[in-house]
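Protocol step 4 of 5: obtain the predicted structure for the target chain.
Materials: sequence only (see below). No template structures provided, no constraints applied. The aim of this step is simply to have a reference model before the mutagenesis design in step 5. Sequence pasted as it appears in the construct record:
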Amino acid sequence: QVQLVDTGGGLVQAGGSLSLSCAASGRTVRSSAMGWFRQAPGKDREFVAAIGWSLGIATYADSVKGRFTISRDASKNTVYLRLNSLKPEDTAVYYCAARNTMAVVTTPSQYDYWGQGTQVTVSS
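Step 4 output (structure tokens):
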């Protein structure tokens, strides 16, 4: 079992930045793929970014490419998401997720563990 705790959300003006953290516990996630998803009110949960823990290869949704950066710190068993140049349409609850395998995927149903979510609100 893996427990994930998401932190770092908040209220920011358009053009601003935030950093989200996802601390994993229960077992090492070094053989896992980790991802960030978001869900706005009335919308489906959508893929934001994912990273393979062992090689650190990242993939991003087109809507955040060039603005968001996913990274990981093996010593802290933590994954980060840096959000730059935020837009009002980035407003959502952001969730960290982990898989039991290393393959990076973008479909929520293929992730095995989820954090509780952290709210990001971008004002115009």
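Step 4 remarks: The chain has a mean pLDDT of 93. The radius of gyration is 13 Å.
Proceed to step 5.
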